[in-house]
Amino acid sequence: MMKFTSLLFLTLLAISNIKSTAQIASSKQGTSKKSGIVTGADQTEKYLPYLKGKRIGLVANQSSIIGKKSSVDSLKSLGIKIVKVFGPEHGFRGNASNGAVVNNEIDAKTGIPIISLYGKNEKPTKEQLADIDLMVFDIQDVGCRYYTNINTLEYVMEACAENNKELLILDRPNPNAYVVDGPVMTDDKFKSAIGIHYTPMTHGMTIGEFAQYLNGEGYLKERCSIKIIKVANYNHDMSYVLPIHPSPNLNTQQAVMLFPSLCMFEGTAINEGRGTYMPFTILGAPALKGKYSFSYKPVSIPGMSERPNHKDSVCYGLDLRNYDISKLRKSRQINLSWLIELYNAYPDKARFFGQERASTGVSPFDLRIGTDQLRKQIIAGVSEADIRKSWEPGLQKFKAIRAKYLLYP
């Protein structure tokens, strides 16, 4: 009887394990099938016939992939004639530091000329477009005004419109599409290389939607002829884990999700993790010693950050590597409390927001935020609730405009 009971127990356990394994396999299969999110680039059946026989200019970087291969390599292997690749900030291979000038070159792997749009010219020239029949834009964005891919998009659209070239956009999900938040930039004096659009700090649009916004809101002298391959099975509230790091300092999903909140600290006395392998997940400064126990030392890291704030000095502050990012999704807001907390903890408040630039009279912090109001509110001790209340008129107006250009729920 004991042998029979043991045998029965083992049999039931085996069946349970098989069932459990099957459920796990089914769950994994369900996320990888076509029923899951499918980027525009991965839907080759929708655009390959349109590319055949044309001379293609491709705006791309390391995030431009079809399946697991580079879009350049994939399209070339499928018989598509790519005559030039245009690279944004960080370069085509994504290995240049933030803000670093990137030069034109010949890609060693493919022999295709690489034209930098973060070097001598930000906008493709008439000469550079002369031998191109169709431009294709395929770059992963993260949904922030101060992330320069949307600047590149505008310059490419402007060049295409001026030179009668169509632009095909292979759309990708915005990992921060769930949040439309922050002050709206409304004054030209705050326009810079890290912000040229009158949007909130996070705009909640994909690249395809943003292209429609640029066309519809008169950012271009002439409308650009665009064709968009939409993301399949996608809406703005969906979580999306990026398969490739979109830039050297967004090297984890945690950094991508925290970027809208932590990039605000650039232009302040706080280091936001640049100069470490944990960028945009930690915050600190030497002057906070004794106020926080967590510490780290920023150093020069080629290809990531050569001259980080507080280089070679021990910084003390917040470790957000394990912060529950679902809290951000639930609130649908940028986290403002960290900025207020570190300002209040900083001993020399006059130095927290840095100095105004002599050439413009505008501080780097204000350029990133798109207004000087937030800096003044924090200095004056305005509550977070009242700061957010001051954003609402601009946000509501922008959301009404944004709604006209959305491709996804």
From TrEMBL:
Sorted UniProt keywords: Signal
Residues annotated as signal peptide: 1-22
Top-level lineage group: Bacteria
Cross-referenced Pfam families: NamZ_C, NamZ_N
Lineage, broadest ranks: Bacteria, Pseudomonadati, Bacteroidota, Sphingobacteriia, Sphingobacteriales
Residue span, Peptidoglycan beta-N-acetylmuramidase NamZ C-terminal domain: 257-408
Organism: Pedobacter heparinus (strain ATCC 13125 / DSM 2366 / CIP 104194 / JCM 7457 / NBRC 12017 / NCIMB 9290 / NRRL B-14731 / HIM 762-3)
MF (Gene Ontology): peptidoglycan beta-N-acetylmuramidase activity
Peptidoglycan beta-N-acetylmuramidase NamZ N-terminal domain boundaries: 56-253
InterPro entries reported for this sequence: NamZ, NamZ_C, NamZ_N
Protein name: DUF1343 domain-containing protein
Residue spans crossing the bilayer: none
